[in-house]
Amino acid sequence: MGCLSPRCREEQVVLLVHVEMRVCCELGQRPIAGSGGRAPVGGGRVPGRDPIELVEEATDRLVCPGERLDLRDECLAVGFRRRRGERAHQWEQMLLLSDEVRFERRFGFRTFTSDNGRFTLNGRPLFMRGVLDQDDHDGPAGVAGSHQSLIDRFAMFKAMGFNTLRCHVKVPDPVYLDAADEVGLLVWCEIPTTSRLTHAARERIEHTLVAMIERDRHHPSVVVWGVANEAWGYDLLGSREHRSWLNELSHLAKAQAPDRRQLAVRPQLPHRDRHRGLPLLRRAARDAAAVGRLHRGLHHPRGFHVQPARRRSAHPRRAARQRFDLWHLDEVFASYADLCINTQRRQFDTLRYQIESMRARPEIAGYVLTELGDVHWEANGLLDMTGTPRSFAGELVAVNRSPAVIARLDRPRVWSGGSVRVDVVAVNDDVDRQAVTVQCRTDEADDGEVSMWSAPGALRAHAHHSVDRFEVTASCRDLPRLATVHCDLRDGGELVATTQHPLLVVPRTGPHLDAGQVLVVSDDELAGRLSTLGYTVRRRGGTDDDDAVRVMRHLDEDDHDFIERGGRGLLLADDVDALGPGFGEFPPVSLRAWEDALFGGGEWVSAFTWLRRSDRFAGLPGSPILDASFEGLAPSVVITGIPPARFQYDVLAGVFVGWIHQVASIVARHHAGLGSILISTLKLTEHPADEDPLADWLLHQLVTTAWEQQ
């Protein structure tokens, strides 16, 4: 089709369509009163005019929207009715007729630009809230979903607050784009990728790109043509030729569709995704903001994922349940369903943190989240492989809405009676708002009493506003508790946005040991830390060491002998050599780096760390899966070799990957000879004593647990 004018404020169009199917149009007059809503149609060829010239002449021939005409000349007629998409103007049911040609196609009017680092749609700023879509459906492979199923899927996706779909490395079926047009979503189309950039691959990619644009450019939903994904098939860092060709491909796309954006997505950077659960993903999200993209969110094991090498094995959902029982995780989580709920909650917490981190930075124009639905090789979707939404789907709209209030606590945990600083940013992608106030409080306030108010004044449309810095205080009694920090944005007294963040509050407690119980150490720094925390400490080498607990960072031969002849120890391991050589005969316990033990050097599936909330750890609030309260404590080393038969007795905290694969421990007992040692890989000594409330509290519980070992 030819170029369509974006001026669409009127209700009718006049078209002159040549038999070569090149179309031009210009907005015409509104119908006169009494015309029944009928629109004028260009009738007959205009003498002396080029077939693609814009015309405005109205004739006395009228046609109702959607009416079909049979014209006996070179011109074609059009029936139409108007729709509104996501700030785009769509005209549908365009029916072209002649004595030989019958052709129906939708088209639309809209402008989409990127200026000064921002997207605009029909002249208005747009923050792109996108999700990568593998376009993989619960049905026959290679077959697009039905029109109605796509409509339902996209409507559900739009209800979550997203406005853009990135159809990943494939040319979408036309029914996919028709559904996006109808629902009112923007689409980012991409050409397929190649494993090696051969001459034949280049020709095929170029041909596919041109054909895709030619076929699909009339869809108002399509706003981006993607010409590359990461570095798949390309050596962008090492090959000048590859970089030059990719640049040429971008120019080719621009020549075919000058009104669309062309993007090469995420060239491979010296940066790795981290999937260690929320504590490390919070740090990763800050790195992600710097490069303008999100990491994969967490997922849950309620799906059909299996490792590629095991796809012909037992039903994966059943197999995941079997592994749940095998590793005695029913003593960690209330049930298998409870594990699913907890992992989904961590996925939402991570997504919210990442999305808010993006929205809080004015230099970022949007994001694309991986991904809309689970597929066999990735399990981080907002939907599972059956198309069922995650349990948090209804909460995403609050994360994506505008205006939004985004709060960041300067620390995830405080001592009882301590205060936390809260930095607040108000994001407004909507209309101007005048009388705006921000309220920040904790859940300790009585009868709605607030901690502090701030009045930033008017919030301009499509802008970020840094609000005054708040400071709130929280306290607890004998046990830690999770307080909630609330930040509310009000416009003229009406609540228009709100956010909540957990804050772990820890009481100041001393050792849980009797006066005569002594800790033996050989590390000066560790001795000073334990003394500061109130313990009686002496150096290794005394005659009565056998009645004490040794606290160590690394085991040597003397420590091995001490444990095997009946001693008790606590090992705070922070590297893979902490156990020393030849420790223990059965089972063969060892320390391994996180990446090697769980992912084999690559991280494509999320990992979940958990802590058994029983015995000495029963007083710690929250679910078994570690949350943001543990930021900075997540381990880089794991304990392997403890068999399932001993898991329920000896493992206090652990980790699993995906649907309960690569199970390992992070706090566990190990028995050797007549004695035993409690091993922890949590990072509890990163900060000075009495500075990190949770690290000190956990260390107290570990020391007590080590003393109680038989």
Relevant CATH superfamily of the largest domain? Glycosidases
What is the subunit arrangement here?
A: single chain
Cα shape = globular
Strand content: 25-35%
CATH topology of the largest domain: TIM Barrel
How many E strands?
Answer: 34
Main β-sheet, spatial strand arrangement:
26-25-27-28-34-33-32-30
The description of the largest β-sheet is: 8 strands, mixed
Highest CATH level, the class of the largest domain: Alpha Beta
Mean pLDDT equals: 76
Number of alpha- plus pi-helical segments: 13
Helix content: 10-25%
Tell me the distance between the termini.
82 Å
Compute the CA-based radius of gyration.
31 Å
State the domain count.
Answer: 4
Low-pLDDT windows of residues: 1-99, 266-315, 445-450
Briefly summarize what is shown.
22% of the residues lie in helices and 29% in strands.
